[in-house]
## 1
Amino acid sequence: MPDQTRDHGIQPLDGLMTRWGVSNHELVATSVEQLNHKQVQKARKGRQLTLHLMLKLTGTLNDAILTKLPKEARADFTPYLHKHLFDYAKGHEPDWTDPNVGLK
């Protein structure tokens, strides 16, 4: 039986936050769903999260990115889904390419 671990290593969320210039603090400050710094850090480092927390983080990241984009580029932004941010999420596509690369 394979080793069932709850630590999955650095997640795609970490790379997206770095690329968009979103810090843990900005994510917590943007959150309307009461995220805390500990939850964001666990998510970036790959500690297994519940689906509910993954969805909170996904929505908050999308909101934080939208606030950083100029108004004219916001319509072109494609929101991220939790399966794009976490490589252990159901439906994760390892060869997915980010449609928002040109916006940054």
## 2
Amino acid sequence: MQLSEEHQQDVNHHRTSYGHYVLVWLGLLAFTGITVTLSGMDLGRWVIISTLAIASIKSVLVANVFMHLKSEDKVFTVFVLVAVATLAIFITLTFFDYAFK
């Protein structure tokens, strides 16, 4: 079966090497190890901020590499950004509620 030239370019555009996947996976493992290490430390309020920052980095890696977000249409990317912004608003409001109790 012969693929059209446009479809072949689209398939080649989505290809990622196994080495790239392995490097991202190792990075995710490293960030998980850092998160576990930070959970045992007494950093006060910085524990929550640092673990959420690490979780954000990990989610961006997963979305871009494993979910192929960087090669998707711009409309799909906008939908994901709206969902992330909504989540950020809810997390921020929760922190304000917790901080002023």
